[in-house]
């Protein structure tokens, strides 16, 4: 859709990247790294001061005491952390469950590692875990379960109770959890992000994936990290070492400096809540129905009846070509590409762009 948006010079609320300048502290941090001469390879698991800051942060938020030496690895973004996690855990013929609609890297990463993807559809407008189906699949054997909260594309959240329920369900199985928490700081309306590291039944059998790109508005920097108990992290690092060895050294120092100022991540939720509210208000009373959005920077909108002759994919293409607005259809987030009647808007954009986008959508009755 981004390519189509470019061709048609359309306003792009399709791909999930922030449309603002990052903080000047990013540039200062990079300059500082260069002054310090951080031009050469970083240590394989990552720059130690950064791993120590992550350990502190993870302890403050989840009460999980991660050893920076053995339980945290800096990666080339969330995507590489996910891929290394799959490669570390999945062997040929292993079944791996994940929930749809889903971020697009899970399914191919499971396949590329010889696993069998077991997609399970989230239920209702709150996109809840289908517990009965999960239990059935667990009985047939699951090597791992992938969860993602806050959830792209639906904006839903898993609660601490959901995590406990998941922990109880897999307690007597040898099933791992890969927990994609890249939007962990983008949570709205006074709610808290529930992470697997806070759940006693999950913390020792999970790999948690985070991304600096989402926190500091620099998705192009492609840096993230994984946290896991040391026996799992040992396996993870065997893969990480030969996939990338080490990641960009100067950026690691810069993110270490950024982490010393907690306001960056603490204020992210309220910053994005403002944009979410602006986008939602712009569509109030229009023909577009808004689904709940509790976290992330994505909003799902239901196509009006007047577009019911089109699939979500056709509607997204039509909107882009004829109306100059790029959104993403929900169907590609399902392995069977089902027509959903929903489109996803990324509201991580300056307010003027959100106003322009909602003005375009309001012209459709
Ligand atoms: C759910 C989810 N997981 C992982 C990622 C990948 O993060 P990164 O850009 O750090 O590779 C994204 C990026 O959009 C995402 O939406």
Shape: globular
Largest sheet: 7 strands, mixed
Quickly count the domains. 2
Q: Provide the gyration radius in Å.
A: 20 Å
Helicity level, as a percent range? 40-55%
**Bound ligand species:** pyridoxal-5'-phosphate
- CATH superfamily membership of the largest domain, which one? Type I PLP-dependent aspartate aminotransferase-like (Major domain)
CATH class of the largest domain: Alpha Beta
Estimate the strand proportion. 15-25%
CATH topology descriptor of the largest domain: Aspartate Aminotransferase, domain 2
Uncertain residue ranges: none
Q: How is the quaternary structure best described? A: single chain
Tally the beta strands. 13
Mean pLDDT: 97
Supply the helix-strand structural class.
Answer: alpha/beta
Q: How many DSSP helices? A: 14
The SSE string, one letter per element, is HEHHEHEHEHEHEEHEHHHHEEHEEEH
End-to-end CA span: 23 Å
């Amino acid at each position: 859709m981004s390519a189509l948006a470019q061709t048609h010079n359309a306003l792009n609320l399709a791909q999930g990247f922030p449309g603002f300048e990052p903080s000047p502290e990013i540039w200062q941090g990079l300059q500082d790294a260069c002054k310090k001469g951080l031009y050469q390879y970083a240590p394989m698991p990552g720059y130690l001061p950064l791993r120590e800051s992550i350990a502190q942060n993870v302890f403050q938020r989840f009460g999980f005491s991660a050893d920076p030496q053995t339980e945290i690895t800096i990666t080339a973004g969330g995507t590489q952390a996910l891929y290394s996690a799959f490669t570390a855990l999945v062997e040929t013929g292993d079944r791996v469950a994940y929930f749809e609609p889903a971020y697009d890297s899970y399914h191919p990463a499971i396949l590329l590692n010889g696993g069998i993807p077991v997609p399970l559809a989230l239920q209702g407008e709150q996109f809840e875990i289908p517990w009965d189906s999960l239990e059935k699949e667990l009985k047939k054997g699951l090597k791992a379960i992938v969860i993602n909260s806050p959830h792209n594309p639906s904006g839903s959240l898993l609660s601490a109770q959901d995590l406990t329920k998941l922990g109880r369900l897999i307690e007597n199985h040898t099933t791992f959890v890969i927990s994609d928490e890249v939007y962990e700081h983008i949570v709205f309306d006074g709610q808290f992000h529930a992470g697997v590291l806070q759940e006693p039944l999950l913390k020792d059998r999970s790999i948690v994936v985070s991304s600096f790109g989402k926190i500091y508005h620099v998705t192009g920097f492609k840096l993230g990290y994984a946290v896991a108990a040391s026996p799992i992290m040992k396996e993870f690092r065997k893969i990480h070492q030969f996939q990338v060895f080490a990641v960009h050294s100067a950026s690691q120092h810069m993110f270490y400096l950024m982490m010393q100022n907690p306001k960056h991540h603490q204020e992210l939720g309220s910053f994005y809540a403002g944009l979410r509210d602006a986008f939602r208000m712009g569509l109030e009373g229009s023909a577009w129905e808004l689904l709940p959005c509790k976290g992330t920077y994505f909003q799902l909108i239901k196509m009006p009846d007047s577009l019911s002759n089109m699939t979500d994919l056709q509607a997204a293409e039509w909107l882009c070509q004829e109306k100059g607005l790029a959104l993403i259809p929900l169907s590609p987030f399902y392995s069977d590409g089902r027509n959903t009647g929903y489109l996803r808007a990324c509201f991580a954009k300056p307010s003027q762009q959100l106003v322009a986008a909602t003005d375009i959508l309001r012209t459709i009755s």
